[in-house]
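Moderator note: this is an archived Q&A kept for reference. The question asked for a predicted structure of one protein chain; the sequence and the answer are reproduced below.
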Amino acid sequence: MTMFLTYSFDWSVIWKSVPFFERGIAITLRITVLSIIFSLVLGLVVALARMAPGPIGLIGFAYVQVFRALSLYVYILFLYFGLALVLGIDLDPVTAGIVALTLLNSAYMAEIYRAAIQAIDPGQREAARSLGLGTVGTFVTVVFPQAWRIALPSLVNQFTDIIKDSAVVALIGASDLMHQTIERVSFYQRPFEFYTAVAVIYLVMVVIVAQLATRLEKRLQRHLA
C-alpha cells in the first residue's frame, strides 16, 4: 500500500506516445473489421452446412466443435509458427491474426445463426413456397431477414469479443494497439500508465460498437415489425 501511495505518476508519456497509439489503433481496427466481415460470411456458410443432412452436416458439426474447443492463444501460435513450418505457408502477422480470429469466431457465429434460423416458424417457409418462392428465395427474402434480427444481439457479443481478442495478435509481432503498448512500456518503464490507457481505448471501441449495434437493431425492428 505504501509503495502505491508513493508511486510517482507520469501521464505525459501517454501524450508523447499518441502517434504510436494511432498506428496501433489503425491496425487493430483493420484486423477487427476484416475478422468480423469474414466471420459473418463464413459463420453463415457453416450454419447452413450444419443444418444440411448427411456428410455436409457432419463436416459443419466437426468444424464448430473443433474451433470452439481451441484456445485462441494456442491456435494463433499454431497457425503462425506451426503451419508456416510444416506447410511452408508464409503469413504475415496481420493476415495470420485475421485468419485465426475468423476461423474461431465463425464457429461461434454459426451456432448463433443456426439457433436464429431454427427459431423461425416453419409455417412461414411453407407459406412462401406456396406463393412460388424456391428454397433460396424463401431463405433470402423470408427466413434470413428475421433470423438476422434475432441473431444480432448475440452477434454483437461476438463483435466485442473480436475487438478484445485482437490483442492476442501482439504475440506474433503484429504492430497492433497492444503490441505498440508493450513496446512503449518497455521503453518508458511505465506499465500502469500505458496499460490503463490501452484499457480505456479498448473500452471506448467496445462501447462504440455496442451503440452502433443498438441503433441498427432498433432500425431493423422498425422495418421488420
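Archived answer notes: The chain has one domain: 11-224.
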